[in-house]
Amino acid sequence: MAQPPSAPGGLPGVGDVARAAGALAKRLPAQLAPLASLAYNYGWSWALGGDEVFADVDPDRWRVCGHNPVRLLVEADDEALTRAAANEGLIRRAQEVTDRVLHPPAREAELPAGVDERHPVVFVCAEYGIHESLPLYSGGLGVLAGDIVKTASDRRLPMVAVGLLYRYGYLHQRLDVGGWQHEYWTYLDPLRRPLVRLTSGGRPLTVRVQVWGRDVFLYVWRADIGGVPLYLLDSDHPDNDAVGKWITARLYDGSRDVRLAQYVVLGQGTIRMLEAMRVEPGVVHLNEGHAALAVLEMARQAVDAGAGFDQAVARARQGVVFTTHTPLAAGNEAYPGHEVMAAVPDLATRFGVNQERILGLGRTWSEDHAEPVGLTTLSLRLSRHANGVAARHGEVARAMWHPLFPGRSVDQVPISHVTNGVHVPTWLGPLMRELLDRHLGMGWIERSADPDVWAAVDAIPDADLWEARCRQRAALVGYVRGRASGDRLRRGEPLDAVRAAADVFDPFRLTVGFARRLAIYKRLHLLSRDRDRISRLLRDANGMQLVMAGKAHPRDDEAKGAVPGVFELARHGGPQARIVFLENHDLSMGRALASGCDVWVNLPRPPLEASGTSGMKAALNGGLNLSVLDGWWAEGYDGANGWAISGEIDGDHEAQDARHATALLDILEGQVLPLFTDTDSDGIPRRWIAMVRHSLRTLGPFVSSERMVGEYERRAYAKP
Q: Which of 516, 487, 500 is nearest to 582 (CA)?
């Protein structure tokens, strides 16, 4: 048994974090000084009471600064700080949260073989959904990465996370009166975030890579995520030209050339940064293929130490595990060989081999020089372990990548699965957490992967469970009223439409949610396919209300085209139709929707859903899933813990859409609404609560990221 450190203090940058926190503390009253250190560790964001501590310093400024604790403490005026310093209850709570985050209690950890304090897991991903105040994510991949890092911290798993610092983050969304998406970007000032720039010898630590034959210099920033440091490479360096500075400007930049440059920086830069910091990985986990060049950089280290090319590649491969996240061709980027060699012209010469030997590693048929070089292909070839993110996705991935493994049957393709999970304390609403804390026992979240823990749900009184659900729904309705009214005012809609957004949403009405990154395969358009029928459900006295959100990629006009259909549905239903599409979906909105919706709808076209964890977040909060049997729901659904639409594959998409749209409305109209509205003399829908209880008991341990990370530790991270 091993007990790794509870804080990331032994890794580079701890002194830089301490100096930044000390400088911030100097502008605060002495009683508030502990908040400066807390502000520089995102552990506060899932610690019980952490959000409230910062909000109580200055509620208005907390809202204006987007829940950014460093900016709050910098911008709060003297009057607010003085008032907060005199609040003895706030000071006591702040100290308690600070102690829990910065000095957590010990937790015994059975570490994977080959992983320890000096040889951590190095987790590499192109995006991270840690918190809305650090907008370095676009969708599920980043949110999953954030949940993995947080869970590693909770489990005391030695981990170092690496990504890119995008100075303009990801897009912000505005919708016009017709529902068409328009994008804009805002500058992310790292000096006003819980970030510190690493120094060495009193100067900024700089890492150098070559892109397009030019040196690109990279700063390294650090964000503390509980006990895990997240290091972010940043090309906005004064020694770079304008093109070099732009490489890490935007997440998933629209230019293919810029994205390839990002992948060079992420892959090679990660390994060179670790060299500079003298961090030796126990294992490198590539979360999607964007950082595939990291493995070749690891092989370069072996060549420099005297190994031959084949030996070096084999040695590097033994230190890498890889998770693939998408069965979509567009999600598995590939580049012609000449583009790769233009971006990394010294790739082959550093190994002393013909460039085609290198490029062939990223091709299905190595000798086909016309075949593009795929990042996923390269990652599969250069990892000792590969997995999809759900059981069905594993099956799809094995069939998809079967040509890479000639002589094997599809079932023998070495791609397993680790079904995604979600970080319980991040996604559990406050009222449900309070309820479960009372009934599931002390420390239950640490044991949330254990089905025995969730058996205690059976003892929760119906009235208590219904009250928690009603109060979280009411909180969501208040949130929707404010956001929808503001969205409509900004669009210049008539005031009666603005007032309708605030007036028609009902805290006692069945609330259905759909909030995802918009892609055409997720089929938002099914909700508006039969406008007359769904409009009746949205207007009827015993009907439902529908809340939607999501962003489309700037260049995905097909996905953007689904939202105007929702706007038309709202117009078709009239002012009494309880339906909104909220702009600018982010982590904060995601938490509000997942905690308050009674039913969560997912409508992917099978088998294109890799996992789809949004419904997992709703399930934790007592929401029920109504989903196509794809992704995680194909495993989670047991016939009684929600509702299912067939997951069959059909090449006739129009016919399939028609069937699934009808099935959705049949279930809502014939099963969901009658169950929800069937209340007894106490106003409690007993059969509904029984299904909620069954959902919590059966899905709670399955959707927990404690289960997911535990599987990674045992099946992927442990040295063979």
A: 487
Radius of gyration of the chain, Cα coordinates, nearest whole angstrom: 25
Question: Quick one: average pLDDT of 33-45?
Answer: 96
Count other C-beta atoms under 10 Å from residue 531's C-beta: 17
526 contacts 485 by C-beta, under 8 angstroms = no
The model's pLDDT over 110-153, given as tens digits with 9 standing for 90+, comes to: 899 999 999 999 999 999 999 999 999 998 899 999 999 999 99
Domains, the chain: 8-102 (no CATH), 478-702 (3.40.50.2000)
Give residues with Cβ within 8 angstroms of 63, minimum separation 6.
Answer: none
pLDDT value at position 5? 35
CB distance 199 to 205 below 8 Å: yes
pTM of the shown model: 0.95
C-alpha dihedral (330, 587, 389, 254), degrees to nearest 10: 20
Q: What is the 8-class DSSP label of residue 291? A: G
Q: How far is C-alpha 428 from the geometric centre of its chain's CA atoms?
A: 15
At 45-59, the pLDDT tens digits run 999 999 999 999 999
Q: How many CB atoms lie within 10 A of CB 26?
A: 8
Closest by alpha carbon to 126, among 30, 251, 34?
251
* CA-CA-CA-CA torsion sign (371, 375, 379, 382): positive
Average pLDDT taken over every residue of the chain: 93
* 325: nearest Cα among 419, 423, 215, 434: 419
Using an 8 Å Cβ cutoff, are 419 and 391 in contact? yes
Which residue is listed with tokens 């493995």?
A: 295
Q: Please tell me the number of Cα atoms within 13 Å of 80 on its side-chain side.
A: 16
Question: Residue 552 is encoded by which pair of tokens?
Answer: 């489309």
Contact 559, 171 (CB under 8 A): no
Instruction: Kindly report, residue by residue over 179-208, the tens digit of the pLDDT.
Output: 899 999 999 999 999 999 999 988 999 999
Peptide bond into 69 cis (omega under 30): no
Tell me which residue of 323, 253, 238 sits closest to 288, measured CA to CA: 323
pLDDT one-digit tens code per residue, 381-392: 999 999 999 999
Name the residue among 364, 300, 354, 362 with its Cα closest to residue 337.
362
Distance CA 620, CA 653 (A): 32
Q: Rounded to an integer, what distance in angstroms lies between the CA atom of residue 594 and that of residue 579?
A: 17
From CA 622, how far away is CA 582, in angstroms rounded? 22
Could you give the C-alpha distances from 457 to 399, 416, 616, 642, 698, in angstroms and in order? 40, 32, 17, 17, 10
3-state secondary structure of 512: strand
What's the pLDDT at 9? 54
Contacts 24+ apart (CB under 8 A), 527-533: 527/566, 527/569, 527/601, 527/603, 527/661, 527/664, 528/565, 528/566, 528/568, 528/569, 529/657, 529/658, 529/661, 530/661, 530/662, 530/665, 531/568, 531/569, 531/572, 531/573, 532/572, 533/665, 533/669
At residue 8, does pLDDT exceed 70? no
Q: Which residue has 């600064």 as its token pair?
A: 65
3 state SS of 47: coil
Question: Would you state the structure tokens that stand for residue 251, as one six-digit string?
Answer: 């997440």
d(CA 501, CA 581) in angstroms, rounded, equals: 11
For residues 243-261, one letter each, b for 16 or more C-beta atoms within 10 angstroms of the residue's C-beta and e for the rest, the string is ebbbbbbbbbbeeebbbbb
Span 245-281, pLDDT tens digits: 999 999 988 889 999 999 999 999 999 999 999 999 9
Cα-Cα-Cα-Cα torsion 443, 444, 445, 451, nearest 10 degrees, comes to 150
Q: Indicate the DSSP class of residue 401.
A: T
φ, ψ of residue 136 to 5 degrees: the values are -115, 40
